[in-house]
Amino acid sequence: MYPANFDYVRPASVDEAVALLKRHGEDAKVLAGGHSLIPAMKLRLARPSVVIDIGRIATLSYIREAGGAIAVGATTTHAEVETSKLLREKCPLLSETASHIGDVQVRNMGTIGGSLVHADPASDYPAAILALEAEIDLVGPRGKRTVRADQFFVDLLQTTIAADEILTEVRVPMTSRSVAYIKTEQKASGFALAGVAVVASPTGVRVGITGIAPKPYRATAVEQAIGNQRTAHAIEVAAAHAADGVVPLADIHASAEFRAHLAQVNTRRALERAFARA
Amino acid sequence: MAERNAARAAGRLFGVGVSTYLEICAMGPSKAMPAGGWEWGCVRMEISAKVTVITGVTPHGQGQETSFAQIVADRLGVPIEDIAVLRGDTSVAHYGRDTYGSRGTAVGGTAIVMSVDKVIKKAKTLAAHLFETLDEYVVLENGKFKAPGITAREITWAELAAEAYLAKNLPAGLEPGLEASSFFEPENFTFPFGAHICAVEVDRDTGEVAIKKYIAVDDCGNQINPLLVEGQVQGGIAHSIGQALFEQTIYDENGQLLTGEFMDYAMPRATDIPEYTLGSTVTPSPVNPLGVKGVGEAGTIGATPAIANAVIDALAPLGIVHLDLPMTPQRIWRAMKTRTMATV
User: Best mutation site among A252, A267, A268 for testing chain B: the one with the most B CBs within 10 Å?
Assistant: First the structure.
């Protein structure tokens, strides 16, 4: 289908974009890479009367060290995240996760900010963002606020962002190489039926899971079960808790039962791989 | 097989599947077809000495634009670049029974052969007249008309075409022009056959299937263009991977199609296609002068059961003897789970 009619504006700065959002409110949608918004507009699931294109605001696209963390600008593409030397060395989980998104064409256009705000329950980044305990900056008429990853995702396709706010930056910590992202793809779309991200450190393990539930989650039961153990048996026992406390999604591609099973399998594999990379 | 047995001994789910097929192709004798099984074709030597071929079949990837040009180029002794194959428009190809049932070359190609041979026959009559001899002493060799033993003179297609269309010196009773059209009514179907072998490994945890090896040997009779034959078989195998492993049309209880988009309907992609080993034998068909049997469907007929059989073979140690298509990871996992629970 063609999208419903809309006006198109291209602000030159974040402030200008925020002012536009404030003026148009719920009638407006922000466009970055377009790989979530435009398909939704073509299906007329989204019908903004104003599209605010921030994709060319150069100051929003960057990957740089900032105070012991790595700051990634909102309009940085998945391809840039995937290939960034800085991220590959200092936060390899984010690059690895980005490499699983869509395909080459999608990665060349889609942005980390756009993907996170859209919050598709089967998108890849949320698992990594949660496991990394990333921070997210939101800028609106009331100024800038920083949200922790575990506060950002609220429900299916819903985040804590307000209608007049723009996501400007994601900050991820530096980690060792002891990380992994294991994903089972829905065969048609390539989205995650089960995507498990693991960050392992001497102090413990963090596990983020996407694709299983209406919103991504930290598998705290797995984290508690594995503690500091690293044996194959301990991994298997811990991974069995991967779907604890969530009601898995069910659709034509996978039943709730199969999703829960995949969560366990991929958790086991992600733990194994992360520990092997230590 | 050694690889399969070793993998099984190591507890992996590795399977080999075989399928052999015999199919009915080259649709077909009109008595056995609902609305005519013939095919129509026309060949015209233009005054320019270029050749126009018009066919009632409509290739949409099968390549008759190339293979028909090859057939005509070979028979006439004309460069293939000088041949145009027109098709796919009823204002150009007025009658045809079209492209399906592996009939394009076997039936459509024969109509072209019939027409090309009519043109050659007429051309020989005209050449004989120009040589002042009888038809039976004229030969067409390397695109030139000769009358060995009668004269050293040779007549090119260009010269002959000019004579035919300027019509200043035609034998009595011979119409101007050098074109012919034909309807080929096949006396029988053709019966291509083949054998396909597929090796797969099934991931015990996720039910995902990986194709480890694929071998196909098909017999489609004479091969006008081996590259086109190979392409057809490859395409058919790719289709079968989709049919055996991914593709399903799902409706809800209200009849609403749930898999109406390629985001939900899983098509095989390039990354899903393994390296094939393709071979062929050649048993020409007696049913048409080209000896071709058709190959449009061979790949998918042979491959779907080979892949399915391989998956079932892989799951045989678990006591699984059947799975509906498509053998999706979820379906395989459910079967493995029930068997496992049943043996506990």
Answer: A252
Q: What is the pLDDT of residue B344?
A: 34
Q: What is the Rg, in whole angstroms, of the alpha carbon atoms belonging to chain A?
A: 18
Domains of chain A: 7-53 (3.30.43.10), 58-173 (3.30.465.10), 179-276 (3.30.390.50)
Mean pLDDT, residues A247-265 taken together: 97
Whether B2-23+192-343 shares its CATH topology with B37-184 is answered yes
The 3-state secondary structure of B290-305, one letter per residue: CCECCCCCHHHHHHHH
Q: What is the pLDDT of residues B23-78, one digit of tens each?
A: 999 999 999 999 999 999 999 999 999 999 999 999 999 999 999 999 999 999 99
CATH class of segment(s) B37-184: alpha beta
Question: Residue B81 corresponds to which tokens in the numbers above?
Answer: 């670049």
| β B51-55/B193-202 pair status | unpaired
Contacts of B290 (CB under 8 A, 6+ apart): B71, B105, B106, B109, B110, B113, B221, B222, B224
* Inter-residue contact B160 to B169 (CB < 8 Å): no
| B131-158 pLDDT per residue, tens | 999 999 999 999 999 999 999 999 999 9
Name every residue in A having a CB less than 8 A away from some CB of B: 184, 186-189, 252-255, 258, 261-262, 265
Separation in Å, CA of B119 to nearest CA in chain A: 52
Kindly state the greatest CA–CA separation across chain A: 58
Q: Flag if B206 and A265 touch (Cβ within 8 Å).
A: yes
Take residue B276 and report the two structure tokens written for it: 């094939």
Token pair 């940085």: residue: A76
- Residue A261 makes CB contacts below 8 A (sequence gap 6+) with B333
CA B94 to chain centroid, in Å, comes to 23
Q: Could you give the C-alpha distances from A256 to A207, A250, A262, B27, B278, in angstroms and in order?
A: 20, 5, 10, 48, 41
Determine the CATH number of domain B2-23+192-343.
Answer: 3.30.365.10
The domain spans of chain B are 2-23+192-343, 37-184
Suggest the residue from B202, B203, B206, B258 to mutate for an interface test with chain A (most A CBs closer than 10 A). B206
Residue B343 has a pLDDT of 44
- B263 contact A CB<8A: yes
Express each pLDDT in B233-277 by its tens digit: 999 999 999 999 999 999 999 999 999 999 999 999 998 999 999
3-state secondary structure (DSSP) of residue B328: coil
Q: Do B263 and A189 touch (CB under 8 A)?
A: yes
**Residue B283, φ and ψ in degrees, nearest 5:** -120, 100
| CA–CA distance, B344 with B334 (Å, rounded to integer) | 15
Burial degree of A45 (CB within 10 A; 0-12, 13-18, 19+): exposed
Nearest beta carbon to residue B262 from set A188, A253, A265: A188
**Structure tokens of B310?**
């391989």
Closest CA to A74 of A143, A166, A11: A166
Complex confidence, ipTM: 0.90
Tokens (6 digits) for B36: 């005519």
| B99 vs B95: CA distance, rounded Å | 13
